[in-house]
Amino acid sequence: MTVTSLNNDYKEIITSRRSVRVYDPAVKISREEMTEILEEATLAPSSVNLQPWRFLVIDSPEGKSTLEELAPGNKTQVTTSSAVIAVFGDMNAFDNADEIMSSAVEKGFLPQEIKEQIMANYTDLFGRMPARAFREMILIDSGLVSMQLMLSARAHGYDTNPIGGYDKSRIAEAFGMEKDRYVPVMLISVGKAAKEARRTTRLPIDRIAEWK
């Protein structure tokens, strides 16, 4: 495959993405393929590579029934999609920093002495960072992975819809997760569109960008 064809494929993925609200309930995404989609999504960048995102893949009848109560205004997406992925930010994400950087050392991406210096710097930094600032940071990072997840799903031939209309105050506990640790970011429904989604327009670039 040529570079030009790769670029055209990527452009097609971006321009063909739609927010789909009605899916074909007969289409089920296997756990293996969903894992591949998530792996591709996690190639997104994050602050100091903390990878603070956490995913809850809700695809069972029981899980969807619980979610329906939390997102009554988005019941169609919940019930007809192959799965709904709840994206969270982990307030304890720094606990994994040493593991992440040690892995980079093992693979030859990072010298051990540099890793130790970075860990010392980051331990000091995040030890002083207010919880609110850390929360804002992981929300941004989780937003990046969410967009990449939707593009990855599109590359696999599936449709998505980002959902913000749900009870964020109860979702973590409803699924047995620590409420104070896991910050809800968004829901993403995934499946095959049952009907063509409504097209939308965008503001022209000269209205939203400027050069200096």
TrEMBL record:
<dbReference type="InterPro" id="IPR029479">
    <property type="entry name" value="Nitroreductase"/>
</dbReference>
<protein>
    <submittedName>
        <fullName>NAD(P)H nitroreductase</fullName>
    </submittedName>
</protein>
<keyword id="KW-0560">Oxidoreductase</keyword>
<dbReference type="InterPro" id="IPR000415">
    <property type="entry name" value="Nitroreductase-like"/>
</dbReference>
<feature type="domain" description="Nitroreductase">
    <location>
        <begin position="14"/>
        <end position="192"/>
    </location>
</feature>
<dbReference type="GO" id="GO:0016491">
    <property type="term" value="F:oxidoreductase activity"/>
</dbReference>
<dbReference type="Pfam" id="PF00881">
    <property type="entry name" value="Nitroreductase"/>
</dbReference>
<comment type="similarity">
    <text>Belongs to the nitroreductase family.</text>
</comment>
